[in-house]
Write a structure and sequence with these properties.
Elements (H helix, E strand, L loop, with lengths): L1 E2 L3 H11 L3 H4 L8 E6 L2 E9 L5 E8 L7 H9 L4 E4 L5 E3 L9 H23 L6 E2 L5 E2 L1 H14 L6 E3 L13 E8 L1 H6 L5 E8 L2 E9 L5 E5 L3 E4 L2 E3 L6 E3 L14 E3 L4 H9 L5 E3 L8 H13 L3 E4 L17 E4 L2 H12 L1
Parallel strand pairs: 4-5, 9-10, 16-17, 16-18
Antiparallel strand pairs: 1-2, 2-3, 3-4, 5-6, 7-8, 10-11, 11-12, 12-13, 13-14, 14-15, 18-20, 19-20
Helix pairs in contact: 4-5, 7-8
GO biological process, one term: inositol metabolic process
GO molecular function: inositol monophosphate 1-phosphatase activity; metal ion binding
Keywords: Hydrolase, Magnesium, Metal-binding
Length: 350
Amino acid sequence: MHVAASGEDLRAAARLLGVGPAALAPELLDPGARLLVGNGAAAHLRRRWTDEGTTEAVVVHRSTHVTGRAGLLAVAAAWGCSQVRDAGTGRVVEVVAPPADAPLTERFAHLAALAATRVEVAVALARDTGRDVRKDDGSWSMAADEAAHDAAAGTLAPLGVPVLSEERPDPDVPDGEPWIVLDPLDGTGNFRAGLPPWAFSAGLVHRGRPVAGLVVDLSSGRRWAGTVDTGAQRDGVPARVREGSTVVAPSGRTVRVPATAHRVRVTGCTAVDLCLVADGSASAWHDLDRSGTHVHDVAGGLAVLAAAGGVALTDDGALLHLRPDTEELIRFVAAASEQGARDLTAAVLA
């Protein structure tokens, strides 16, 4: 079974479930729902919170018994759910973590999804607690940032990999070893203003290359995930880069429209920006006319971008190599193709 993503999938699911396509169509656009179809079966899932504060994927409508199917359990795991519940029978199936000898990217993907779910709770509980302070650079350090870091770092700790975060001093990372970098709450200014999006971002980096990542728009529930082994997905549906004329850019006092672009979008959340390039909503992102961006802002999104077939080049045209240093500022272009990145660089720096 796979997550429905087309009109053909929708009609097939509706036929198997015995309902009209119009009854299911809105679920294709809802990050809190999944419509699964394939192998002669269909299921309609909703994500919900249990009384214990965990999340579960609830099968609200199905064509046959599907609760324990591998495809459905994989969707629930990527959704950050701890279990699957059949609303009709009450049957509950636990989502099992990958074994200890599974690839690190697979184990990271599982725990990162759970971490994002726990961050959702932590951020909500920390909001409006009055413990927000302004930092020396004028940006805000919020209680929600601290709560998000604690929830995420604790969840990822079993991997035994060094974790870097905007909220903590950098640990030592041995040469050649993998490391994780978090932005527990990217878009803090948006979050404080109540202006979407704001996001959780986590990336796994090995030898300077982002090999697995997860970005969750906490304001809407949208999830982008990707690994070098499995490709990229947006809300469970495969995602690929796409050439185009829309560029996303960081917020700032001025925003230029490069000659290669017809329009520029500014979201105020870098992690989400990079994922919009990864899923084809935009063709490129850059910070070439800014002082630069920190690794914790971009590692998760860059992993999704790479898994979706995109590229990231520095301002001098080299492939971007990430370093375990959250203080360093990096300037680069993320694009659907290497040629697109070079064309945008030339237009911005002209």
